[in-house]
Specification:
224 residues; globular; 2% strand; mainly alpha
Length: 224
């Protein structure tokens, strides 16, 4: 299954751009993710905060995925279907980087010593497996399952770090994960308000809220 394509009659258009609201919400998501990533990366570099650095990497990967998604959704499938699919594949690969960044953050704020090493090795193996899987089957559900698994690990890490060390960023991280899960349900159930504001558009808007929560969590996470 490749990138889901609506029928020609169903595709909203504005000038030469297909799915203009989806493109616009993707662009807003990308700009916010890039800005928050830059701010968090500066903080991580100044403070030597590895967990924050990993979160910044995830935000940057989000920006890349959103840009590629905007291009993919905006290209008319009748004019250049091959380019549309290449951009879609690129967005899926970027989603794998988002997931691995989240797992790496857990290694730094919720683990020490051999446990940290094990989590980092797991994150690396997970990324390799995901990359091969998406290369063979460029399906959104593969990316969604991988990202959902990373969210579960983030949630478990946040709860553990809060229970053991009263992790200051835990509440923000739990909120970010829960909002992301809501966005995932919206996407999976294809819930939208209108043909011109569909499930993709609502997904992006909800994820904008999650991005800010991840950013605030990154500023507060403490390396162990």
């Amino acid at each position: 299954m490749r990138m889901p394509v609506l029928s020609d009659a169903e595709l909203p258009r504005w000038g030469g751009i297909v799915e203009p609201v989806t493109v616009a919400t993707n662009v807003v998501l990308a700009l916010l993710a890039f800005w928050l990533s830059a701010r968090l990366a500066y903080y991580a570099s100044a403070e030597g905060a590895k967990a924050a650095g990993a979160m910044a990497g995830g935000l940057m990967a989000t920006a890349c995925a959103a840009v590629l998604g905007a291009v993919a959704h905006g290209i008319d499938p009748r004019i250049d279907p091959a380019l549309r699919q290449r951009m879609w594949r690129g967005a899926l690969h970027a989603m794998g980087l988002i997931a691995v960044a989240g797992v790496m953050a857990v290694a730094f704020f919720a683990a020490r010593g051999p446990a940290r090493t094990a989590i980092l090795l797991f994150a690396t193996a997970k990324l390799v497996w995901y990359t091969v899987r998406v290369a063979r089957r460029p399906e959104f559900r593969v990316a969604a399952l991988d990202y959902g698994g990373a969210l579960a690990i983030l949630l478990a890490g946040a709860v553990y770090a809060w229970a053991r060390w009263s992790e200051p960023g835990a509440s923000w991280l739990v909120a970010a994960v829960l909002v992301s899960l809501v966005a995932g349900v919206v996407q999976a159930r294809r819930f939208g308000f209108h043909r011109h504001f569909n499930h993709n558009d609502l997904f992006h808007v909800i994820q904008i809220v999650a991005l800010y929560l991840f950013y605030r969590a990154g500023l507060l996470l403490v390396d162990r």
